[in-house]
Amino acid sequence: MSTREGATAAAASPPPLASAGSPANGAAVAPRTARAWWPALGRLLFRCRDLLFPLVLLPLLAFTRPRLLFGSARGDVLLDVLGVLLVLAGQLLRASTIGLAYIRRGGLDRRPAADGLVRAGLFAHSRNPLYLGNLLGIAGLAVVHGSPWALAIGVPFFALGYLAIVAAEEEFLHGRFGAAYDAYVHEVPRFLPRLRGLRATMRGMTFHWRRVARKEYGTTFAGASMLLLLLVVDRERLYGHDARRWWLALALWLPLVAGYSTLRWLKKSGRLGHVLD
């Protein structure tokens, strides 16, 4: 999961998570009526999220203790399965979004930026599919960890953080594209994808696997490595040391390293295509 997504929602950069509502979401607050401090906070977070978000997430996972769900090992397994499914769903959503419609990442000079309003691919169904994927991944890691504190602090923190970033991006997009963006807001939900027409969208577009590999190999490797480490360390803390866990984790991690290294070499050598394709 990458925290850098989104220069502006549904623009030529990865979009944001939805904030408090658009007509398509059934909410009543439009970005231009939001309190001035909310987009201002979003602009601040947009600039520093690459540093701030990991500095919040990693200590939360490292310094809060996991607990067994209902005090049972079976409950712990159920949490792990649910968490892994959330992480996979988040990564699948990100990959699907990037594979169908390219958007420039990270804004311009750490500020929201957009060359055009992107409404193709999954952006025709959700204004912020990449941020939604990020939140699913973060929530999944917190669920796997199984700490009430990580869930109670981490999930609201990142949800509110992304909502503030979205407010800043939506304010920018409204000023940049005016009525065209207002129409987009009216038609497409901020977060939860509109399923109507999704099959036609998937069939009507070419999926760019090379672009997904080029853009997502680092995010996928980091997320998978963190998930694997979390599964092992939490079991050590709950059940005591077992060297077999570490050997199994190593056996699973080495193919991830090999895949990451191969894709990185392919990208650097130009075999995964050009930056803008």
What keywords describe this structure?
single chain; 277 residues; mainly alpha; 8 helices; globular
Overview of the structural elements:
With 277 residues, this protein is mostly helical. The protein has a domain at 23-207. It is built from eight helices and no strands. Helix 2 runs antiparallel to helix 3 (129-145). It is globular, with a radius of gyration of 19 Å.
Helix percentage range: 55-70%
Amino-to-carboxy terminus distance:
22 Å
The parts where pLDDT drops under 50 for at least 5 residues are: 11-34
Q: Output mean pLDDT.
A: 85
Quick summary:
The chain has eight helices and no strands. It is mostly helical and 277 residues long.
Summarize the SSE layout with pairings:
Layout: H1 37-63, H2 73-100, H3 129-145, H4 148-177, H5 179-187, H6 198-203, H7 209-239, H8 243-268
Helix pairs in contact: 1-4, 2-3, 2-7, 3-4, 3-7, 4-5, 7-8
